[in-house]
Specification:
Layout lengths: L1 H31 L6 H15 L3 H28 L1 E13 L3 E12 L2 E13 L4 E12 L5 H13 L2 H25 L1
Antiparallel strand pairs: 1-2, 2-3, 3-4
């Protein structure tokens, strides 16, 4: 009888170990897939759910705070999209290398700015010191719809060389707005 009980427990342990292994693989896969949340936002969500499962009313309060924060972020994002004309359609990031104080992630972004579509691919090197975090962009590649324009082509090449995303998005917003105005004007005269 003792052997059969031990066998049942061993079978249950093995089943649980397999389940843990599957969940760990699923977790690793989800870490490599597209993500739209920062590590801090994910940690806040995990803590919120932990409090909720413990059964305290604090979990519900923090959940409502998170919902309010999410609504505020969505409102801010909507405002920025209307203000700049830039709308991201997809984003993915993949961790290429991670050490204690250095992380390299590969990002892919695609979107539209007014009527122009664009795609970006770059690596982001994040180095953490005791007090600060610094980030450096490398291997920037930009694909734009209107590269036939030599000025845009020169600008894109210069941006890829210097890796300055802020300048790219500022200039893209302005250029795409006027590109749309020119396109509508020429359609009007046709």
């Amino acid at each position: 009888m003792d052997n059969s009980i031990c066998q049942v427990y061993e079978d249950e342990i093995q089943s649980l170990e397999e389940e843990i292994k599957l969940l760990a693989e699923k977790y690793e896969d989800s870490q490599q897939e597209s993500t739209f949340f920062s590590d801090e936002e994910i940690l806040m969500s995990i803590k919120s759910f932990q409090r909720e499962f413990r059964g305290g009313s604090k979990g519900h309060e923090s959940l409502s705070d998170l919902k309010a924060q999410l609504e505020s972020l969505e409102t801010d994002l909507s405002f920025l999209m209307k203000f700049t004309g830039i709308q991201f359609t997809s984003h993915s990031k993949k961790t290429v290398e991670k050490t204690r104080n250095r992380t390299v992630r590969k990002h892919r972004l695609s979107g539209n700015c007014h009527s122009l579509s664009f795609q970006l691919e770059f690596q982001l090197l994040e180095m953490q010191n005791k007090e600060s975090v610094s980030a450096v962009i490398s291997d920037l590649s930009i694909i734009m719809e209107s590269r036939e324009d030599s000025d845009v082509s020169k600008f894109v090449s210069s941006t890829e060389e210097h890796g300055n995303l802020l300048t790219f998005f500022r200039s893209l917003s302005s250029y795409a707005e006027w590109y749309e105005h020119r396109r509508c004007t020429f359609l009007h005269f046709k």
